[in-house]
Structure formats: structure tokens, C-alpha cells
Amino acid sequence: MADEYLKKFINMERKTKKMINIDPLQTGGILTNEARQALIEWGDGYSVCDFCLGKLDEIKTPPIYDFVHKILPEFIGADRVCLTHGAREGKFMIMHAIAKPGDFIIIDKNAHYTTYIAAERAGLKIKEVENSGYPEFKIDVDKYENTINELKEKKANIALLLLTWPDGNYGNLPDVKKVVEISKQYKIPLLINAAYAIGRMPVKMNEIGADFIVGSGHKSMASAGPIGLIGMKKEWEDVVLKKSQYFKGKNIEELGCTVRGVPIITLMASLSYVTERVKKWSEQVEKARWFSEELEKFGIKQLGEKPHNHDLMFFESEKLYEISKKHKEGGFFLYKELKENNIWGIKPGLTKHFKLSTFAATREELEKVLQIFENILKKN
Fold first, then answer.
1. Helix axes 318-326, 363-379, angle to 10 degrees
2. Residue 344's domain is classified under what CATH number?
3. DSSP 8-state assignment for residue 69
């Protein structure tokens, strides 16, 4: 039975990798050729630990030490960087390290579900800053101050502010500088969830002024996953990276070591490319706006901020939804027709609301996507 299963797996081809990819989860994480080569060379279990003397970020061969302590801090503009298994683990590490059970965390209503779960796991209470609702779902960042005062009146302890920048549903980019001002005014640390920002767009934490920032290698930094990172101000290093009393070289929140294989090697291999990629962010924004305007000509409405400032976008289509009610494939017809035309990324079963990303596709490929949407609407 095991041999039979193994044969099927070995011969299985991931056909979607040859398709036009508009999946927001994947478009920023597609590996570079250098990363693919590194993946093969360093794919064996704990291969990066061949010359480890007890701490991952102190390994000199391969040059993880320089990468973590010099290259990444410079890239994201942080005093100190540590690696995680993803942005969600980074959020939890920070919450668990700086807050006590029962403390409040103030988050935006557009926060990723893992923000809620990380806070729950750390035993924290959550207070939301509402969005503006349909159709833009914008976060009014001035409401962070209102929410702080509301909780202070109740004598609640506020341990952390968190802003999702951009959010993973609508791709909205709230006024982060304003939240920084509020954070400093009330002396409450600020964490930015930049899982869809770091690696796609220029981000310097020291220029923004936040206390913490988290990123995602597999979402936005051309890396195999899971891998993420935390950037922090130096003043927080001894708190978040507190040492174990039993094993002096190990950090408690990292459980000693974090990413110990392919993810770190592929992130290292891709970073030169990613560093150059973020310099072309304005072209990505222009491409996304163009695509949105063209798709809206078919009666498919973009929700979220306009003009849009990110490649991730959320659309609404009553026309496609009405077609799905009569189509023999039901709500799966859109997914199947796009797949038949070599387009990947719209989740199965979605027609009325769906999100996509223009990040990895060329303008010519997106013209094909637009043409297929138009054909689907005409023939149905």
C-alpha cells in the first residue's frame, strides 16, 4: 500500500505551476531559479544545521548569521530581526512576550483570522477598530484613539496595537503613520502585520516608526514556506528574545530555534531578486489599477480602496452569481472555466465575491484573463 501511494506521489505533476497565477496566496511567493537550485541542494532534513554550534541565527556556513543580523535588518529597516515559521507565529511571539493574560489588544476589523487566534492563544482580550463597511471597508485609523480612551475609562490594560497593512481581503493600506502617532502619544507598542507588504513593496520599519513588524517569506518574499520574520526596535530585543533559564543559548519564544531547512535557504537565495523587485512597486500598482478598471467594464465591481494601492483586490459580481444559479456546474463553473483556460487562483465555488492578485502576471497575461472573463459573461 505504501509503495503504491509513493509511486502516485512521485509521478504527480503540479500542473498549476504552468498556468497564469492570480492567487493572492501564491503570487508573491513564487521561487526564483536560484531558490529552486538551493532547494534541491539543501533539501535534506536539518542540512542547514551541519555546522551549528547551538543557535540557528549564529550559523556561519551557510551564512545565516550575516543574513539574519545584517542583511534582513537593513532590508526591512529594523534594529533586530528574528525568523519565524510565518507571520502568524511572529504575531503570537510578540503578544505572548509583551502582554499578560487578560490584557487587551486593539486590532483593525480587517485583521487576518490568525491575529485573533494568536491573541486567543496568548490569553488576550480583543477590541476591534471597525471598518467603513461596503464598498470600501476602509479603516478609520483615528478610531484607534477613540478605542484606547474607551478602554482606559474601563481601567483596562492595553498591551498592544496592531494594524494590518495591507489586509488580506481587500488589499487596503490604512494610514500607518497616523497609527504610529497614536501609539507614541499613548505609549502603547504598535505591531504591523505586513505579510502582504514586505517583499512586494518598499517597507522600512524605522521610517514608519512602529515597534514591531511581521512579514511572510512564502507569501511575499519568493521563498518556500513556511517562513516569516519579525522586525523590532532594539528596546524590545531582550523581551521578545528572552533567554531560557535552563538552556542559556536558547530563546524562549522561538522554542530554541525556528526555521531549520529549505525555507531559510530559499529566502536567502531569493532576497537579491526581491530587493530589486520592490523598487518596481509603482509599476505593480499601476498594473493593478489598470486591471481593475478593465474588469469593471464587464460589470464586475472592485471593492476596497479606490484608487487602489496594492496588487491584492476583492471583486463583486452579481452577473457571475446569477449565471451560477442556472449553470450545471453551479458555483464551481467560474473556477472550472478559468482552469480550462490556463488561469489559476479563483477559489472553487466562488462567483459573487472573489479576490485575486495581479502581482505575478504580466500585462499580456492579464489581458488574456480579461478576455476569458468577457467570454464567460457573453456565452452564459
1. 50
2. 3.90.1150.10
3. I
- Interstrand relation of 212-216 and 190-193 (parallel, antiparallel or unpaired): parallel
The last residue of a domain, from among 238, 256, 273: 273
Residues 86 and 102 in one domain: yes
What is the per-residue pLDDT across 164-209, written as a single tens digit (0 to 9) for each? 999 999 999 999 999 999 999 999 999 999 999 999 999 999 999 9
Same domain, 154 and 300: no
Q: Closest Cα partner for 110 from 20, 195, 17, 18?
A: 195
Q: Using one digit for the tens of pLDDT, what is the confidence trace for 210-247?
A: 999 999 999 999 999 899 999 999 999 999 999 999 99
Query: Hey, which residues does 312 pair with through a beta bridge?
Result: 357
pLDDT in tens, 270-301: 999 999 999 999 999 999 999 999 999 999 99
Strands 104-108 and 190-193: unpaired
> Range of 350's domain?
2-29+279-379
Give the integer Cα–Cα distance in Å for 72 and 78.
Answer: 8
pTM: 0.95
If asked whether residues 173 and 314 sit together in one domain, one would say no
- Cα–Cα distances in angstroms (integers) from residue 346 to residues 336, 337, 340, 355, 361, in the given order: 10, 11, 13, 7, 14
Q: Which of 220, 245, 273 is the last residue of a domain?
A: 273
- C-alpha distances (whole Å) from 56 to each of 61, 62, 85, 89, 328 are 11, 11, 13, 17, 54
Query: Domain holding 204: CATH number?
Result: 3.40.640.10
Report the C-alpha gap between 47 and 40 in whole angstroms.
11
| Strands, E assignment, 78-131 | 80-84, 104-108, 125-129
Confidence of residue 50 (pLDDT cuts 50, 70, 90): confident
